[in-house]
Write a structure and sequence with these properties.
Blueprint: E1 7-18, E2 21-27, E3 41-46, E4 50-55, E5 58-59, E6 64-69, H1 73-80, E7 86-93, H2 99-102, E8 106-112, H3 116-128, E9 136-142, H4 151-157, E10 164-170, E11 180-181, H5 184-191, E12 198-203, H6 206-218, E13 226-229, E14 245-246, E15 249-250, H7 251-254, E16 257-259, H8 260-264
Helix pairs in contact: 5-6
The protein binds FE2/S2 (inorganic) cluster (FES).
């Protein structure tokens, strides 16, 4: 089968996450289009509109989930789509998170805004395979309470999972917000989770990642145990377009998931 030909499915469910982000469940008549690893991506296309690469934010027995922020023509068309809309999906692309490396360890997830989408695929994997991992902690921030994605999981599902805690912050609260107010890196330092036996996975706006990495260094987290995904660099996903390279490294072929040790060996262009 030609890997560049999309599998045709349809949108089976749409969840409003924030005013500009929706999660789309995509299924085919044979169930989910394929079974990706957490952290992998897929090319999503709408007939007569276009295609783009998106992280797969979770999956069920019969569907894949894409959490998509409205930023351009294709995403606007997706946001206007309704359940039943035909949609093309091809993939999966990228290496995904290193599950064998993470197994048996405590997991700390640090996300900002829509950057929680790729982390969510691994968080839900850890929840579904709870016995394989140690304690789970999610530290997540967004600009405002309205901008928090995956509210049901953040406030209902994940806090009820055994040995899992969720800490949420917003840059600016509103009259109903009773949680923390402040940026993610400061919140991380305030919570001060121990680096002992822990793998940290982070994704969010570049400025957040930059300061999160500085905070983790201050807290003695080791670069081998810090993982991030450069999924925003993935364009064609198959090593053809030449738009993802950092130095001689093709993000789509070698990543997009890297440890900080690996990133430190690349030119500082990410
Ligand atoms: S995304 Fe096109 S070459 Fe890597």
């Amino acid at each position: 089968m030609n890997p560049l030909v999309p599998i045709i499915g349809k949108i089976s469910k749409i969840v409003d996450e924030t005013p500009d982000t929706k999660t789309f469940h995509v299924t085919t008549s044979n169930g989910k289009p394929f079974t990706p690893l957490p952290g992998q991506l897929a090319m999503v296309s709408l007939p007569a509109v276009g295609e783009a690469m998106f992280s797969i934010s979770s999956q069920g027995d019969d569907h894949l989930e894409f959490s998509i922020k409205k930023v351009g023509m294709l995403t606007e068309a997706l946001h206007d789509a309704e359940v039943g809309q035909e949609i093309g999906v091809r993939g999966p692309y990228g290496n995904g998170f290193p599950l064998d490396f993470c197994k048996g360890k405590d997991m700390l997830f640090i996300g900002g805004g829509i950057g929680l989408a790729p982390l969510r695929s691994l968080i839900n994997y850890c929840v579904a395979n709870r016995e394989d991992f140690g304690n789970l902690q999610v530290i997540y921030g967004a600009r405002s309470p309205a901008d928090l994605c995956f509210k049901e999981e953040l406030f209902e599902t994940w806090p009820k999972v055994r040995d899992m805690r969720v800490d949420v912050t917003v840059d600016k609260g509103d009259e109903n917000w009773q949680g923390n107010v402040g940026f993610v890196p400061a919140f991380l330092e305030q919570l001060n989770p121990s680096p002992e036996g822990k793998v940290t996975v982070t994704c969010g706006p570049p400025i957040m990642i930059k300061f999160v990495l500085q905070s983790l260094a201050k807290m003695n987290y080791q670069p081998d145990n810090i993982i991030t995904t450069l999924e925003m660099r993935m364009k064609c996903g198959v090593g053809k377009c030449g738009r993802c390279n950092i130095g001689s490294c093709y993000i789509c072929l070698d990543g997009p998931v890297f440890t900080l040790t690996q990133l430190n060996q690349l030119p500082n262009e990410y």
